[in-house]
Design brief:
Largest sheet: 3 strands, antiparallel
Strand order of the largest sheet: 1-2-3
Strand content: 15-25%
Oligomer: single chain
Number of strands: 3
Order of helices and strands: HEEEH
Number of helices: 2
Distance between the termini: 35 Å
Radius of gyration: 14 Å
Length: 69
């Protein structure tokens, strides 16, 4: 059995960390070489790492550094 998604829990947690009702989607894709790629439509930044979580964190770090939030 896989993990479950509790929408109410996500919204409660998100409210603690957001300034408004802004949501985004980071696309995670496993490449042929086993690395993970994190991207977002319309944004030139990419995160690449050996796990999906690390790729997403790298993507977010780069966004934070460029100020392209």
């Amino acid at each position: 059995m896989g993990a479950t998604y509790d929408d109410s829990e996500v919204h409660e947690t998100a409210e603690l960390h957001t300034h408004g009702d802004y949501w985004t989607t980071i696309v995670l894709e496993e490449r042929d070489d086993g690395q993970w790629l994190a991207t977002q439509g319309g944004v030139a930044v990419e995160g690449v790492a050996s796990t999906a979580a690390e790729a997403a964190a790298e993507y977010c770090r780069k966004i934070s550094e460029t100020g392209d939030e």
